[in-house]
Amino acid sequence: MNDLVVHLARFASDLRAAGMRVAIGDEVDALEALLRVDISDRAEVRWALGCALKIRRQDADAFDALFAQKWLGRGGDPKTPAQPPSATHGPGRAGRALAFLSAATASVEPAAQEAETGQPGSSREALFRKKPFDRCDQRDLLAMEPLLFRLAQKLATRRSRRLKPTRGPGRTDLRRSLRRCLATGGELVMLARRARPIETPKLVFLCDTSGSMEMHTRFLLAFARALLRVAKGTEVFAFNTELTRITAHLAAGEQEQALARLARAVPDWSGGTRIGECLAAFASRHLRELVDGRTVVIVLSDGLDRGDPELLAGALRHIQARARRLIWLNPLLSDPRYEPTARGMAAALAFVDRLAPAHDLASLERLISDLTV
After folding, report:
1. 342 found inside a domain
2. Are residues 233 and 190 in the same domain?
3. What is the Cα–Cα distance from 359 to 134, expressed in whole angstroms?
4. Mapping DSSP to helix (H, G, I), strand (E, B) and coil, where does residue 95 land?
5. Angle CA 247–143–367, to nearest 5
6. Pair (216, 346) in one structural domain
């Protein structure tokens, strides 16, 4: 039974990595379905999984390919029924299930989550969501890319908190409906309605690329890169001892190549940092051009500044006055013992609308609600 749970969890993780919407609850339904069908009949297993995992019509071909490759462990036809395997693992349906899965599970690489947690059935996505960025390597960054893109898509398709007039379905707007009556002699011909539109905010990232921030910055830059694909108004700057606009560098090419290009293009990458001077340079050169009442400005830094804290406070005052919201992401907040007493961080607190952690994917997910209009 444990083998079945593990194999199903790995298969669901592969489906999510391919962009399919498979929830943990769907996995539970799939396990229930598998225990009610003939596990040795591949066609029956395929249909049970497709229904329980709620595979959409547009994902059917990709699902079939992954079913053949990952579930069956080979590139064969997933609809061809197999001969029932010998029940060497025990009698009945449970024995046939374990026999059928033994060959398939042998060809699947051990899941990363089992190596770290020792718990069968843990989702790789769930593991990545809580794995600290400073414990990740380049392979983890590449593996997280689809998750970061899905997170960016969630922001791009999130509905605004504000109601706006619409011609389609929505809430009845009594005031506008009554005003329309004036044009029709008091007769209510059509109700006016309001709905919450999809409004992707304008975003400006200011990313600290000093040595103490290197791993965290790489992951936020990967998130910013994903946002560039769905929110065209996103702008990204890197700073340490100088401020550099990196939007164009980040947008082109593969992720690994883009980050390598940035390391060459940004002066003093992984060196020291002068946060106040760099944010003051942004305020004087780019604030009027890039920031307005719809813009969310996000600063990623641990606040360990070598410069003048008064200069930092003045720059943030100007940015906050013009932006819709100013958010400071500090990965050190993941430690419950941390207090923002460093000179730079202490000077910033009065001008930041929200101070939040940014040490793993889960913390970036919580950020989404603060980025919507």
Report:
1. yes
2. no
3. 8
4. helix
5. 55
6. yes
